[in-house]
Amino acid sequence: MSSSTASSEPDRTKPGSSIIVMLVAATFFMENLDGTIIATALPQMARSFGVHPADMSLGITAYLLTLAVFIPISGWAADRFGLRTVFGSAIAVFTAASVLCATTSTLPAFAAARVLQGIGGAMMVPVGRLAVLRATPKDGLMRAIAIITWPGLVAPVIGPPLGGFITTYSSWRWIFYLNVPLGLIGLLLTWRFVDNVREDAQRRFDFAGFVLCGIACVTLLYAMELVGRNDASWPLVGALVAMGGVAGVLSWRHLRRAAQPVVDLAPLKIQTFAVAMGGGSLFRIAISAAPFLLPLMFQVGFGMNAFDSGLLTLAVFAGNLSMKIVTTPVMRRFGFRRVLIVNGVIAALSLAAMALLAPSTPKLAIAVVLFASGLSRSLQFTALNTLSFADVPKAQMSGASALSSTLFQMTMGVGVAAGAIALRIGEWLHGHDAHSIAPEDFSVAFLIVGFIGLAAVIDLLRLPKDAGALVSGHGKADRSRR
């Protein structure tokens, strides 16, 4: 299919679009789950490799940093080689790397396999979203985005308990072997239903932009991670922040001036996209901190075992799924602006409410708070992700998807680091160290996280009342009542 055909095609549902949405949702789930499921398997993996459990953080860090580096080139790759070619290749690389992860016997080999897996994941996420955006008309975008965004909410919640179950009753290697049947099915469906659309096959590769963005992402993410550690080297943190800041400024200037930048900043001129990237990023940082803090609070602060802790956090998952049933009617009734502002405040308060939890709090009460948080964060997450592309023209979808995925990955990584930093602030205020963390330290951490979520609402006030009306159908709902 030529680029002219793709851009002039009427905005209608393409054959197999529902299958494409489900396929992309499945691959997103596989990719997001892989980033969190190994957390509870690290002790067993460390014994297999003959290393200290703390050293296993290399496997997680290598994967996340690789995602941050290679996501920006996903748009160029899709434009240059075609959607089906890149998406299918990404699934193949991710699946093959999963097999390598499962068969490694040393930590360096495992880290190398995780880097390869990260390259596949970096291509899989934004290109898969792009396939959905190009196959779905504007009036069907709400439903499609709601389906493909649930993995980002669900995977961090069910990953740790699922990983704990697998490692307890089997071997950690099955965590990676499970990706093989999903990957093979994904490859077959990609070949059958995804068009090999190329928007600009002659687009040049922006090597300078790729290097600058990669340096900025890696140094800033790694610096944030170091700040959250108790043995952080502050001179190293300062050097990384300085390097990342300089690289960030240089990359911003380069991307604005380059004729064909690796990440197109033009979509930021669209108000709805800019707001979703601004305030939306702050919100994602807040909700990404919760899955990190909750298991620690339940196990370290409340003295629960890993399995009970995992079961309790499933209340968040239940809230996520329950909200999916009413997301579209709520958006159609109230519109993006009102939902994002009101629900954003509710979501922030639900995070702050976790500061009230204590070891003596009944588990039912804890589950109710987590369920309510799951409801509000699911609605906010879906609304923000849908608003991001509500007014983006088809011609700019590739650049918008790459930029959105880059910021998404950055904010998810920053969210975990922000949770660790917030916990350290709580320890400092109460005079505790890492070996004597108390429940009150987590109370401070959740108050800080809730404040971050509340700050995200400020940027949403800039939205016009009819923001994204074509996608939400809010205006149609108002006219039908007249």
Rg calc: 22 Å
Q: Could you tell me the mean pLDDT?
A: 81
User: What is the subunit arrangement here?
Assistant: single chain
Distance between the termini: 44 Å
Polypeptide structure, described:
- With 482 residues, the chain is mostly helical.
- It has three domains: 192 residues, MFS general substrate transporter like domains (Growth Hormone, Chain: A), CATH 1.20.1250.20; 56 residues; 216 residues, MFS general substrate transporter like domains (Growth Hormone, Chain: A, Up-down Bundle).
- The longest helix has 34 residues.
- The chain is globular and about 60 Å long.
- The N terminus and C terminus are likely disordered.
- One of its GO terms (molecular function) is transmembrane transporter activity.
- It is found in: Membrane.
Summarize this entry quickly.
This protein has 482 residues and is mainly α. The chain has helices spanning 3-8, 17-36, 42-49, 57-70, 74-81, 83-103, 107-135, 141-169, 174-177, 179-193, 207-227, 234-257, 271-301, 306-324, 327-353, 363-390, 397-430, 439-460, 469-472, 474-481.
